[in-house]
Amino acid sequence: MGQVPPDGGAPSGAVVSDADRNVSRETPRNVSRETTEKYHDTPIAAAAERASQVLTKGMAGRLPRPVEPRIITVANQKGGVGKTTTSVNIAAALALHGLGVLVIDLDPQGNASTALGIDHRDPDISSVYELLLGEITLAEAMQASPAHERLFCVPATLDLAGAEIELVSMVARETRLRNAIDLETIRAHDIDYVIIDCPPSLGLLTVNAMVAAREVLIPIQCEYYALEGVGQLLSNIELVQAHLNKDLWVSTVLLTMYDGRTKLADQVADEVRRHFGDKVLTTVIPRSVKVSEAPGFGMTIIEYDPGSRGAMSYLDAGRELGMRASSTGQEDGTA
Q: Which terminal residue of the chain, N or C, has fewer Cβ atoms less than 10 Å from its own Cβ?
């Protein structure tokens, strides 16, 4: 047996493999190979690898395109449940999966516009306000998002705050958005999904969103009072079904702000699944600081931190939503 050199290298005369050479070049000499393998298996390294796969589209893959564009309203009159976060990140996930997506921001706060990198404070920007009043067309209102080449947004400005008052006296006030969504423009821009982000209320803007859509996605946070107000939302959906849009149905429920460290989160998730059944996505969105930080940088979580748990969860939720048949609830007409 050869002697061990003082620098800790291989014994003289020993055969050194390529793997051993790589380890010796990339790690300090006093670190064992076992320690090196553990280092490469750390959460940070795993997140970096996931981020690389997402950014190179290796993990996202492609989803089948729906036969007709799916128009989905994201609604829950309770504030702070993740409506806007869900709208923009599901949209980004679908775009990364190879689909064309348009987000219509119906919240006067304009948070969805901000998260998609659209400066909705620009006084010259065309917005959903002018679209609802019939002053511009959908093609003129659409803005390309820097988040993805297949992602578009109709931004909201502060003018939208007074839209509900102005709409009250207008003819066909509940159908303004539906009439403004021009299917020829949708097809011309190769849009597969239209996602409408609603304000935290059950006012005229939300009614317009429900009349314009065929599906409703309800985000529900895994916290106390999770189902508070959902009954009123379902009642409103039934009223819209009965009088304005018979094709409307609740297709999807998404559990958000899930904290696996608490029993409460599991109890709420079980209660929601018991109430809504298979409409609840298998994927749950964890409570995450990164998800909350992303809009502050004008980004979705998938763009801001693609290797994070939040990004992975929304990618999975987007894939699950895309793989579900859009006709299930429409056949039985249930909400």
A: N
Residue 102 near residue 154, CB atoms below 8 Å: yes
**Among candidate residues 252, 256, 271, the one with its CA nearest the CA of residue 74:** 252
pLDDT digits (tens, 9 = 90+) for 158-198: 889 888 888 888 888 999 999 999 999 999 999 999 999 99
Tokens of 203: 């006012």
Q: Judge contact between 236 and 244, C-beta under 8 A.
A: no
| C-beta separation of 255 from 269 below 8 A | yes
Q: Are 318 and 93 in contact (CB under 8 A)?
A: yes
Tell me what pLDDT residue 21 has: 42
13 — pLDDT class (breaks 50, 70, 90): very low
User: CA 135, CA 54: separation in Å to the nearest integer?
Assistant: 40
Task: Tell me how far apart the alpha carbons of residues 291 and 294 are, in angstroms, rounded to a whole number.
Answer: 6
Distance between terminal CA atoms of the chain?
Answer: 77
Q: What CA–CA distances, in Å, run from 2 to 7, 11, 24, 187, 287?
A: 14, 5, 19, 73, 56
Average pLDDT of the residues in 79-91: 94
pLDDT the model gives residue 168: 86
CA separation, residue 73 to residues 77, 238, 284, 293 (Å): 12, 15, 19, 24
Q: What is the pLDDT of residues 96-109, one digit of tens each?
A: 999 999 999 999 99
**Spatial distance between the Cα atoms of 195 and 89, rounded to a whole number of angstroms:** 11
Locate 209 and state its tokens: 């969103």
Inter-residue contact 182 to 130 (CB < 8 Å): no
